[in-house]
Amino acid sequence: MTTISSHANFAIMRITPPPSGNTPSVTGGTKSGTVSSSKDGDGTFQVTMSQVGGQKTVDKSVTFADGTTKSSERAVTVNSDGSKTIVKTNGNGKTTTIQESQSRNADGSISLSKEITKADGKTTDVTGTITKSDGETDKSLVYTNAKGVTQTVDDQTTQTGNITSHVRTGIGYKGNTIDSSSTWTTIA
What we know:
This protein has 188 residues and is mainly β. It has a single domain (26-186), classed as Porin (Beta Barrel), CATH 2.40.160. Helix content is 0%, strand content 63%. The protein has no helices and 12 strands. The chain has strands at 26-37, 41-52, 55-64, 69-78, 84-90, 95-104, 110-117, 123-133, 136-144, 150-160, 163-171, 177-186. A 12-stranded antiparallel β-barrel has the order 1-2-3-4-5-6-7-8-9-10-11-12. β7 and β8 form a beta hairpin.
Protein backbone atom coordinates (compact mmCIF):
# COMPACT_ATOMS: atom_id res chain seq x y z
CA MET A 1 0.00 0.00 0.00
CA THR A 2 1.15 3.51 -0.70
CA THR A 3 1.15 6.29 1.84
CA ILE A 4 -2.52 6.16 2.76
CA SER A 5 -1.67 5.42 6.35
CA SER A 6 -1.05 7.02 9.68
CA HIS A 7 2.52 7.83 8.68
CA ALA A 8 1.44 9.94 5.74
CA ASN A 9 2.39 13.57 5.82
CA PHE A 10 -0.41 15.72 4.47
CA ALA A 11 1.90 18.65 3.76
CA ILE A 12 0.27 19.10 0.37
CA MET A 13 -2.66 20.75 2.15
CA ARG A 14 -2.12 24.09 3.80
CA ILE A 15 -4.61 26.42 5.42
CA THR A 16 -3.63 30.03 5.91
CA PRO A 17 -5.75 32.19 8.22
CA PRO A 18 -6.99 35.46 6.74
CA PRO A 19 -4.83 38.58 7.27
CA SER A 20 -7.18 39.79 10.01
CA GLY A 21 -5.78 37.03 12.25
CA ASN A 22 -9.25 35.60 12.87
CA THR A 23 -9.36 31.92 12.05
CA PRO A 24 -12.40 31.15 9.90
CA SER A 25 -14.91 28.66 11.26
CA VAL A 26 -14.92 26.68 8.00
CA THR A 27 -11.84 26.35 5.80
CA GLY A 28 -10.52 23.84 3.34
CA GLY A 29 -9.59 23.03 -0.18
CA THR A 30 -8.87 20.34 -2.71
CA LYS A 31 -5.54 19.33 -4.22
CA SER A 32 -4.92 16.74 -6.89
CA GLY A 33 -1.98 15.38 -8.78
CA THR A 34 0.06 12.34 -9.71
CA VAL A 35 1.71 9.65 -7.61
CA SER A 36 4.49 7.20 -8.39
CA SER A 37 4.79 4.34 -5.90
CA SER A 38 7.40 1.58 -5.59
CA LYS A 39 4.61 -0.80 -4.54
CA ASP A 40 1.57 0.22 -6.60
CA GLY A 41 2.97 1.97 -9.67
CA ASP A 42 1.74 5.25 -11.11
CA GLY A 43 -1.59 6.92 -10.56
CA THR A 44 -3.51 10.04 -9.65
CA PHE A 45 -4.72 11.36 -6.31
CA GLN A 46 -7.16 13.85 -4.86
CA VAL A 47 -7.11 15.22 -1.32
CA THR A 48 -9.95 17.31 0.07
CA MET A 49 -9.53 19.00 3.42
CA SER A 50 -12.11 20.84 5.46
CA GLN A 51 -12.01 22.32 8.90
CA VAL A 52 -15.10 23.10 10.92
CA GLY A 53 -14.58 24.45 14.42
CA GLY A 54 -11.98 22.24 16.08
CA GLN A 55 -12.20 19.27 13.71
CA LYS A 56 -10.21 18.81 10.53
CA THR A 57 -11.30 16.19 7.99
CA VAL A 58 -9.05 14.93 5.19
CA ASP A 59 -10.49 12.75 2.41
CA LYS A 60 -7.91 11.11 0.17
CA SER A 61 -8.40 8.90 -2.87
CA VAL A 62 -5.81 7.36 -5.17
CA THR A 63 -6.42 5.59 -8.48
CA PHE A 64 -3.55 3.61 -9.95
CA ALA A 65 -2.98 2.84 -13.64
CA ASP A 66 -4.11 -0.77 -13.15
CA GLY A 67 -7.53 0.49 -11.94
CA THR A 68 -6.90 -0.14 -8.23
CA THR A 69 -8.48 2.55 -6.06
CA LYS A 70 -7.61 3.31 -2.45
CA SER A 71 -9.38 5.81 -0.27
CA SER A 72 -9.44 7.01 3.31
CA GLU A 73 -10.97 9.69 5.48
CA ARG A 74 -9.22 11.11 8.55
CA ALA A 75 -11.09 13.21 11.10
CA VAL A 76 -8.70 14.94 13.50
CA THR A 77 -9.84 16.53 16.76
CA VAL A 78 -7.43 18.40 19.04
CA ASN A 79 -8.30 17.64 22.66
CA SER A 80 -8.16 20.17 25.52
CA ASP A 81 -4.80 18.73 26.71
CA GLY A 82 -3.24 19.23 23.24
CA SER A 83 -3.39 15.55 22.29
CA LYS A 84 -5.20 14.47 19.14
CA THR A 85 -7.93 11.94 18.47
CA ILE A 86 -7.80 10.75 14.88
CA VAL A 87 -10.54 8.58 13.41
CA LYS A 88 -9.50 7.01 10.11
CA THR A 89 -12.00 5.20 7.88
CA ASN A 90 -10.74 3.25 4.88
CA GLY A 91 -12.58 2.61 1.63
CA ASN A 92 -14.12 -0.59 3.07
CA GLY A 93 -15.71 1.31 5.96
CA LYS A 94 -13.35 -0.11 8.62
CA THR A 95 -12.47 2.43 11.29
CA THR A 96 -9.19 2.92 13.16
CA THR A 97 -8.96 5.27 16.15
CA ILE A 98 -5.64 6.87 17.02
CA GLN A 99 -4.87 8.66 20.29
CA GLU A 100 -1.74 10.75 19.71
CA SER A 101 0.35 13.03 21.88
CA GLN A 102 3.55 14.93 21.13
CA SER A 103 6.03 16.89 23.21
CA ARG A 104 8.95 19.06 22.16
CA ASN A 105 12.40 18.05 23.37
CA ALA A 106 15.22 20.42 24.36
CA ASP A 107 17.07 19.66 21.10
CA GLY A 108 14.05 20.74 19.03
CA SER A 109 12.96 17.22 18.11
CA ILE A 110 9.47 15.97 18.95
CA SER A 111 8.66 12.87 21.01
CA LEU A 112 5.63 11.01 19.68
CA SER A 113 3.33 8.54 21.41
CA LYS A 114 0.29 6.89 19.77
CA GLU A 115 -2.18 4.17 20.55
CA ILE A 116 -3.83 2.78 17.43
CA THR A 117 -7.04 0.76 17.88
CA LYS A 118 -8.26 -1.08 14.79
CA ALA A 119 -11.86 -2.02 14.00
CA ASP A 120 -11.31 -5.51 15.47
CA GLY A 121 -10.22 -3.99 18.81
CA LYS A 122 -6.53 -4.89 18.46
CA THR A 123 -4.16 -2.16 19.58
CA THR A 124 -0.70 -1.08 18.49
CA ASP A 125 1.47 1.30 20.49
CA VAL A 126 3.83 3.63 18.62
CA THR A 127 6.67 5.62 20.16
CA GLY A 128 9.42 7.59 18.51
CA THR A 129 11.05 10.83 17.55
CA ILE A 130 10.32 13.35 14.81
CA THR A 131 12.90 15.84 13.51
CA LYS A 132 12.21 18.58 10.97
CA SER A 133 14.73 20.61 8.99
CA ASP A 134 14.80 22.42 5.64
CA GLY A 135 11.70 20.83 4.09
CA GLU A 136 12.50 17.35 5.44
CA THR A 137 10.70 15.42 8.18
CA ASP A 138 12.33 12.31 9.65
CA LYS A 139 10.44 9.91 11.92
CA SER A 140 12.13 7.07 13.83
CA LEU A 141 9.30 4.91 15.18
CA VAL A 142 8.84 1.66 17.08
CA TYR A 143 5.49 -0.14 16.67
CA THR A 144 4.49 -2.70 19.31
CA ASN A 145 1.52 -4.87 18.40
CA ALA A 146 -1.01 -6.54 20.73
CA LYS A 147 1.25 -9.63 20.99
CA GLY A 148 4.20 -7.50 22.18
CA VAL A 149 6.13 -7.94 18.92
CA THR A 150 7.89 -4.84 17.57
CA GLN A 151 8.78 -3.39 14.23
CA THR A 152 11.07 -0.41 13.67
CA VAL A 153 10.37 2.11 10.94
CA ASP A 154 12.21 5.14 9.64
CA ASP A 155 10.05 7.50 7.58
CA GLN A 156 11.59 10.33 5.61
CA THR A 157 9.43 12.95 3.92
CA THR A 158 10.90 15.70 1.77
CA GLN A 159 9.00 18.51 0.14
CA THR A 160 10.36 20.66 -2.65
CA GLY A 161 7.82 23.00 -4.16
CA ASN A 162 4.83 20.93 -5.26
CA ILE A 163 6.65 17.57 -4.98
CA THR A 164 6.46 15.47 -1.80
CA SER A 165 8.54 12.28 -1.52
CA HIS A 166 8.11 9.56 1.11
CA VAL A 167 10.65 6.84 1.88
CA ARG A 168 9.92 4.15 4.48
CA THR A 169 12.56 1.67 5.62
CA GLY A 170 12.87 -0.64 8.61
CA ILE A 171 12.44 -4.12 10.01
CA GLY A 172 8.90 -5.56 10.10
CA TYR A 173 7.16 -7.63 12.79
CA LYS A 174 8.37 -10.89 11.22
CA GLY A 175 11.95 -9.69 10.67
CA ASN A 176 11.20 -8.76 7.07
CA THR A 177 12.74 -5.74 5.39
CA ILE A 178 10.51 -2.69 4.95
CA ASP A 179 11.51 -0.60 1.93
CA SER A 180 9.01 1.52 0.02
CA SER A 181 8.87 4.92 -1.56
CA SER A 182 6.41 7.20 -3.29
CA THR A 183 6.47 10.61 -4.92
CA TRP A 184 3.41 12.87 -4.94
CA THR A 185 3.25 15.79 -7.36
CA THR A 186 0.51 18.35 -6.74
CA ILE A 187 -0.90 20.00 -9.84
CA ALA A 188 -1.06 23.73 -9.29
